[in-house]
Amino acid sequence: MQHMEFKVKWGMVIDLDKCTGCGACSIACRAENNIPPMQDASNKLRTTDWMNIYELSNGKKFPDLEIAYLPRPCMQCGNPSCSTVCPVVATTKDEEGGIVSQVYPRCIGCRYCMAACPYHARYFNWFDPIWPEGMEKTLTPYVSARPRGVVEKCTFCHHRFNAAKEQARANGADPLDLPEDAYIPACAEACPTGAIVFGNLKNPEHRVAKLAASKYAFRLLARLGTDPQVYYYSKRDWVRQLGDNYLQKELKGGEHV
Amino acid sequence: MGLDRRSFLSLVAGGVVGSLATPVVWKTLDDVSIWSQNWPWIPRLKYGEETLLPSLCKLGTDAYGVQVKLVAGHPVAAYGNPEHPLSRGGICPLGAASVQLLYSPSRVRSPKKRVGDSFEDISWEEAEALLTEQLKAAGKDVALVSGDDTGSAAEVLAGLVAALGSEQTYFMPSEGAAAAAALGLLGGDGLVGYDLEGADYVLLLGADALGAWGTTLRNAKAFADGRERAVRVVYVGPAMTATAAVADAWIPCTPGTEGVVAMGLANMILERRALSNVAGLEQFRKQAAGFSPDVVATRSGVAPETLLGLAKELLVAGKPLVVPGTTAAQGLAVSDAAAALAVNVLLDRINMPGGVMVLPWGPKVVAAAPDKKAMMGRDVVGYLAAVAAGNAPAPKVLLVHAANPAYALPDLKTIQTALDKAGFVVSFSSFMDETAAQADLILPDSLTYERYDDAYTPYGSGQANYTMAAPILKQPLFATKAAADVALGVAAKAGVDLGFASFEEVLKAKAEALGLDFEAAATGTVWLGTEFAVQQLDLAKVQAPALQESATDVTLVPVANLKIGSPKVATPPFGTNVISPRELQGKDMVVAMNAATASKLGVRAGDAVTLSGAGGECRARVRIFEGVVDGAVMAPLGLGHTAWDAFSRGKGANVFQILGTQTDVAGFTRFATAPVGVRKA
Amino acid sequence: MSEREFWPEGVERCDLGKFLAWLGFISIFLLWGAYGAYKVLGTGIGVTALDNYFSFGLWITFDLAVIALGAGAFFSGFLRYIMRIDELKNIINLAVIVGFLCYSGAMLILVLDIGQPLRAWFGYWHPNVHSMLTEVIFCITCYCTVLIIEYVPLILENRQIAKNRFCHHLAHNFHVYMPLFAGIGTFLSTFHQGSLGGMYGVLFGRPFVFREGFFIWPWTFFLFVASAIASGPAFTMLCATFMETITGRKLVSYETKKLMGKIAGLLLCFYMFFKILDTYAWAKGILPGMGLTFDQMFNSEAGYGKGWLWAELFWCGIIPAIMLVTPAVRNRPALLYTAAILDCVGIVINRFVFTVQALAIPVMPFDQWFSYSPNWAEWSTSLMIVAYGFLVMSLSYRYLPIFPQERALNR
After folding, report:
1. What CATH number should be reported for the domain holding residue A79?
2. Which CATH architecture describes the domain B555-680?
3. pTM
4. Quick one: which of B269, B318, B556, C341 has the fewest CB in 10 Å?
5. Which range, of B541-550, C108-117, C149-158, averages the lowest pLDDT?
6. Strand A217-218 vs strand A230-233: parallel, antiparallel, or unpaired?
7. Which fold has domain B50-101?
8. How far apart, in Å, are the Cα atoms of B277 and each of A210, C72, C201?
9. How far is C368 from chain B (nearest CA, A)?
């Protein structure tokens, strides 16, 4: 598929030196995007967590162990492995802002996109969604409930982007030049330590643009050529090294990420 | 004219071809995408006007402001409140799940009376009459256990109990109480707070400040701001907690020896800094001298050079702050808190910017109620143990408010004996928790979003604060009632005058006492106190932590985790997914220990084990995790519920079952860690 | 009219009772599978053992395997009608039916495997021309239609149906145009066999399957075509032999079987040459470029050890390739059949590892290996398709003259 360049590229920088793995982002995401609750969520290969939190470790013995938590939204890849393979154009990257869309009424549930995504950012609705009696009244008006048989994923709370654009238009401002924090997803908003910073990567005024340019910033599996719009940030070498696969010889000789 | 076969077929064929030429067929086909998206059993979204209303989240030990989004009058999501000093836009996992909790399957939807082994729904009139009758019959043999140590509702309930002539009013255990007791021990008076925002060096002695300790969200914001200012945060504790994971350094220590480390630091500071103007310094110096670097190293596992490094960092820092605490966010030893406080005194950090702040107790408006200081000074664990042992009379009526003692107290078997001995247990729980499930009467409290609520200075706050929340919903979703309103009504019926007709009036009085406009407070204005009472602290009164080696090989380190739940609430429906396989695997709780400990115990990763302690046993699965000190077993608190609903029931084990207690100074009970036996299941 | 009069002329079949008992046995699997299908369609794919890591599993492996093995149809058709290898007329009918069963069976499984079967046709309605899967949807459905067109004249040749003049003429006309359909089938088949490989080869997020290639086609495109035509003829030949074993009658001459074996052997040699080259280039070029090593692609604890690779390349690759091109081996039925079986097993392993192992490998360095094993819902429905194949084949064998040599061989 044609590689599209956008004037606006929404992106995240997640500071892994600040994330405590508390889970607030993931729950806020669940509430915002109407992901149904799960009574038994112990099989993590069957749960739906648009914002999933991994635990990273430097692999050392006590007392030298260090850990880090890595929240994983959809990477909104500049070169998505998923959207190109979808046979029915149910997921695209063709809108200004660079968010990879997911069209539930279009998706046929073939799950090819899930096989394509190395980040496991895509989730399938194995059954119809169920809310405990009455809890469906707490559905937000932003994201329709998905029936079984379709794939879903993080959309950077795309509805908030739409709302921010609308607000900008109403104010007579340029909807493509949103100020910092005019649009942020639920996870970034909820994060107690402010580890998740969100903004326009193409706007040098935005904090994300500055953080993404840091030598401590890195992207997951960037070597595969996915060109993610989600950056991570850590001053710890071992954390950055876990962001991608490296051969032993590449790590020797003080060569860093 | 008949229709022959040929013309019939032509008609059909023509019809088919003709209709294919119209958009009808194609449109219908394309609509498959719409109706296969909207089966009747898939809930439809409701649209409408969107509003944001301020409220409070008191589901954890914290109490902070949130904003609830309503769409056409229905609450749909809770967000952090950027205007609130204890949220600053952040929200905890329980808060994020709080709106959905309104519809939790475990909510008690009407008052219930015990009939044999089950409950019978009754009306509020009947329920209140029943309680009135029981209270009248009980005379002064009434007791209260409340888990709400920031709200005025507890004041109203305690007022009722006190007015009936009883002094048995208790809060559930909290570190705030232990810290205040430590301050009291040194001759101070007030709530203990920490100016994390102002400090430039923070030494956390066990306090999992970014996990579930104190003003968790505000701690997180202060930590994040501190990063920008290069504030160094050092965590001393037995396990790699959430705080340790992101702190600038983690210094492992033997479970329960944070107080020893504090004394060791005090000793080093005293050796390196000439001090005067500190009351009781010489007696304290003698005490501290017993905590030589070698002694501290032996007892706590913190090497002398590490300890010296910490002492030096404290001495060179401009605004250092030492914060005591535990991974369980409760069960702190008063002696440990006092030792940490002493270090702050030596560093001259009391009521200084970036230091330990002593905050006023806050106004009391229900005249009959006991002082908060008195109530916080009483130890519920000790009381219930005495009841169980027959050393204290069992209450004829036990009121349980915003608390779940049948689940969330240490030495649970003893607590259970005490609860069994109580004559008539009344639970004000909003949920069918373990205590409600065995109560004689359940008077379901409305949740904060359905009623008035307030919070005064949750533990840890750097300055006094008061937040009020007006009901967000016009009326409760179910037949529930605010516990304070029930108490006021019952008081009136029992002939007790508490001076107020409704909880709203209580809050009006409270606002007035603080000089705060009620309307403003009810719409989100937060009162902030700027007074810090001058303290005359006497270090001679410090009772240093015991130094003897613990008799046990293995120590249980319970870790509170808001994503799993709190002493008040079990895992909410929206919280199950964030519980990781590092805490729960299938139905098994996961406990962590390092490889050395595991090999000593003869267990391997994934093994099922039985943990034993304090009159109970529980099952767990072993995880090898090098973020735990030798000889310690880290276990998540908040699992193993037996009541509630399918989202939390039967998942893992309740660590309180095996958590033993230790008598502490000032009549308190310490239970932050406890000996544990581990054997293969 | 007795049931015997529906049999092809001049052949013997078992008695009707025995035949019905056989159909009853097959129906057990059909019913079990129908129950599985009912649960899958009625409650959701959650009843299977598939999950968000193993989004593809037994079903996709099954589909890819039967489509590869069903390649005997198009390739035999190509050799018979386009290349004019006349000998193949003795087995071409069987190849067509096996092909038809494989493709229609695969499509039935796909109906279960996609989450929204009602939207299955969206591939035509909203096609993404960049997706290999779109090409697969196009070609498989078109080719299945071709196979139906090829199968219909066989049905029309039933002794009783052929008495109808219209049917007789229709069948004749179909036969006249068969080279055209064979040509179309060859084109469609080559493309979708390739696209199935291409589906994996383009997954640059999956180091195990990603390949570079020629123009828009990754090398797997060509390898899948080659492996399909290397195993399809062997599978068709094995089907004939299997039917002979069950029925106790000679159906295809051994000469024809040897020819099929030879064709498969030559193609397998061709395939293995490039497959080994490809594997080498992948291990030495692509993996290091991604920062990965060959060893990291395997994990025997999770069930995805190197054993699969050696089995695929050596025991079920090189060995049968050598066996099949060796006349002495081909002349001995037991060895010929063994080699053919190894050939087919090797291709099934290939489809399995490309589908399942590719997804089991943790790509993010902090992720871990997971295992997948199919559950009853996947097995029952897959077995249902096998049973469906047995059913249609049994009926075809009993009532249709599909083996031109049968009368002569059993005289």
Report:
1. 3.30.70.20
2. Beta Barrel (2.40)
3. 0.94
4. B318
5. B541-550
6. antiparallel
7. N-terminal domain of TfIIb (2.20.25)
8. 49, 98, 77
9. 13
